[in-house]
Amino acid sequence: MRKNWAMPHVLAVLVLDDVVGFDLGVPPQVFRAARVCDDEQLYDVRVCGPGPVHSAAGFTVVPDHDLSALQVADTIVIPGIHGTGPMTDGTLDPVIRDALRAAAARGTRMVSICTGASVLAAAGLLDGRPAASHWGWESRLRRLYPAVRWDFDVLFVDDGTVLTSAGVGAGVDLCLHIIRSDHGAEAANRAARRCVVPPWRDGGQAQYIERPVPAAAGSGTEPTRAWVLDRLAEPVTLEEMAAHARMSVRTFTRHFRDETGSSPRQWLLRQRVEHARLLLESTDLGVDVVARRAGLGSATALRQHLHATIGVAPSTYRRTFRHAS
pTM for the full model? Predict the structure, then answer.
């Protein structure tokens, strides 16, 4: 649910040596795409650093802001890094460490993408906390930072004021999750459309899926997923999904899991809960009507699934969302 962050919300992207180029480009792109009715930007994004830094991709980055941007930031985002202290021996420049600790003490929200979590860990900000990072660095990060409760099986972890994600594309998912938490589903969906990316993937989805993208446009289970999304209010069965894809149930289930990381039933339930959240946020429909339109059947079922997902009842969710508005 959205949080009462100050507006304009200052978001500082901290650039350090050996920064991963993709991870660096994601936060400015996604957060600057978050706007009110395509006009006013919801985030004041400031890329900052100790000076010019070399990227892992072989180019030099010259940030527009120095480290003083960390002192006024409401949120600090740390992209992934390779080959420097936090990833080699657990050390961090004392100036960076102290700046991050001071920001965290002020209540600044801390966010990392991929191996950027090593920077937070080296600053001592992840001790005892759950955190995500790229599965390929599991053994090293566990060895360097044993006090962190690492989870290398998920796309991202939201632990309140500290949020961490897996690598590369998972950073997009985390940024959109933050926009949705701050400003609601419509703002996140608009930002996703601007960036031409899917608007939502559950943070608990597995990082590693055998075939994350169908081999060719229109192949695999993608057309069937689109077909199902147009029929969320209908009682679509697994057999009907398999028939639409012209596969046996067994083959369809295997392909579906390969392409999405979850079973068809798990995926369908998530889509229905997300649609119900959108209806609660953006309409005044009664809870019974929301439940039916989302395909959850009854208000009781909606309450159970919403509580299991975010821990609150539909009325509480709507009231909190409207109050934050």
Answer: 0.70
